[in-house]
Specification:
The chain is built from 15 helices and 14 strands. The chain is of the alpha/beta class. It folds into two domains: about 150 residues, Aspartate Aminotransferase, domain 1 (Alpha-Beta Complex); about 230 residues, Aspartate Aminotransferase, domain 2 (3-Layer(aba) Sandwich), CATH 3.40.640.10. The strands form three sheets. Strands 2-9-8-7-6-3-4-5 form an eight-stranded mixed β-sheet, with helices on both faces. A four-stranded antiparallel β-sheet has the order 10-11-14-13, with helices on one face. α13 runs parallel beside α15. The longest helix has 26 residues. It is globular and about 60 Å long. The two termini are about 35 Å apart. The N terminus is likely disordered. It binds pyridoxal-5'-phosphate. Pyridoxal-5'-phosphate binds next to α6. Its cofactor is pyridoxal 5'-phosphate.
């Protein structure tokens, strides 16, 4: 398994530039986000329908309640709201999360670590777990931000195929068998079981149990990333891998090999940068050490604001579900009506994304400037492939566009694809 960056378009250095490239750590030299940056810049054209960025709907941020919660927190806690606080996080928030993260199996606050965004959870999990050369299993496709957090620690990625129901368990079993035959045990598998970023797919209950069986059998940790789980708008809610594992251990949290991550970014507002990890105490203890070296503590005031907002969460989540359900339905209808034959797409039951697969002949990276000319942007699928591939795929985000924009954007996209197929 080689470690290959999917996108390599470096800015050429000008003569006389200090030798920065040689100074960078080998892990950071392996990272290159230039293509992504260029793509985001391209999508900044005014008037364009941007299905590219994975942004929540700003008009649904509970602005008034955030302002009131902020005032209340400052009045209640005074200077404590802006003082350093414990690395583990604000205790009332951890107590609430301990009770509510897995309703059927509450944990103790000692098993909860507050993080500065789910992105920090991934970064610090990488920091405490990955040695250079470790094998990591990632879904194909997967969240590019996770790969970006893991790559500087110089792992070898092994790509696990997915289908409509998430990870292909036969392929995973075969991969684990092959690696074991080479004497290799992957350090962890990174998975997003609910409304995955980028595909919008959900791992079925049966496969959740199989994933736990296999990872237990081979001694592989599971990093379960679940920022979208609350945003289900159709179908039945499924228990998290962490909750299923707690059932198996008789609620003994320290016997669970699942590290569960979630965040308030998609349910309240991402700028609050408030997220958490639930895991066995030895993992949490190491994360505390890693976080001390990263930012000492998450912003105290933000943790207090989020705690004040907890009573609002059920109605806020209901609003989000209703709105995203409407947007997803509108996008699916438009895709069904407009897309040329040969293009397939996923049907999400929640979250913010769906995934298009085009005929092999179409390169979605090469097509993007022409789509932008036609008034629509998307995220190219290659970005989500840790080991390359996916050139004929793309991610569409429906949470950040109005209903009419969705119709307009999908029509522009369909026309761009049609022209591309006729080239
Ligand atoms: C799967 C996944 N994990 C983690 C994150 C990081 O989110 P945040 O840092 O805002 O909590 C994102 C953001 O889009 C995501 O899609």
């Amino acid at each position: 398994m080689s470690l290959s960056a999917p996108i390599q378009t470096r800015r050429p250095s000008s003569p006389g530039t200090p030798p920065f490239e040689a100074a960078f750590s080998a892990g950071m030299r392996d990272l290159d986000g230039t293509a992504l940056r260029d793509m985001l810049r391209l999508a900044q054209v005014p008037g364009i329908v941007n299905f590219g960025g994975g942004l929540p709907a700003p008009e649904l941020f509970p602005m008034q309640q955030i302002a009131q919660a902020s005032t209340r927190a400052l009045e209640k806690y005074g200077w404590r709201a802006v003082q350093y606080s414990t690395t583990e996080g604000f205790l009332p928030l951890r107590e609430w999360l301990a009770e509510h993260t897995h309703l059927a199996s509450p944990v103790t606050p000692d098993h909860i670590q507050i993080m500065t965004g789910g992105q920090q959870s991934l970064d610090l999990i990488a920091k405490i777990l990955i040695d250079p050369g470790d094998t990591l299993l990632v879904e194909t496709p997967t969240y590019m931000g996770a790969v970006q957090s893991f790559r500087p620690y110089r792992p070898n990625f092994a790509a696990v195929p997915t289908d409509e129901q998430g990870i292909d368990m036969d392929a995973l079993a075969a991969l684990l068998r092959d690696l074991a035959a080479q004497g290799r045990t992957p350090k962890f598998i990174y998975t997003i079981p609910n409304f995955q970023n980028p595909t919008g797919r959900t791992l079925s209950l049966e496969r959740r149990q199989l994933l736990l069986d296999l990872t237990e059998q081979y001694g592989v940790l599971v990093v379960e990333d679940d920022p979208y789980g609350q945003l289900r708008f159709s179908g039945e809610s499924l228990p998290s891998l962490a909750a299923l594992m707690l059932e198996r251990t008789g609620d003994d949290t320290d016997q669970s090999h699942v590290i569960y991550c979630s965040s308030f970014s998609k349910t309240l507002a991402p700028g609050l940068r408030d997220a958490w990890v639930q895991a066995a105490a030895p993992i949490i203890d190491r994360l505390v050490l890693a976080k001390q070296g990263a930012d000492m503590c998450s912003p105290t005031l933000n943790q207090m604001i989020v705690t004040e907002l907890l009573p609002l969460l059920p109605s806020q989540i209901a609003r989000l579900r209703e709105s995203y359900a409407g947007r997803a339905e509108r996008m699916l209808r438009a895709l069904g009506r407009e897309l040329p034959s040969g293009v397939t797409y996923t049907v999400p039951q929640g979250g913010m994304f769906l995934w298009l697969t085009l005929p092999e002949a179409v390169d979605t990276a090469a097509m993007l400037p022409r789509a932008v000319e036609n008034g629509v942007a998307y995220m190219i699928g290659a970005c989500f492939h840790a080991l390359g591939g996916g050139h004929h795929t793309m991610r569409l985000c429906y949470s950040n566009a109005g209903l009419e924009q969705i119709d307009q954007g999908v029509a522009a996209l369909a026309q761009t694809i049609q022209t591309e197929l006729e080239r």
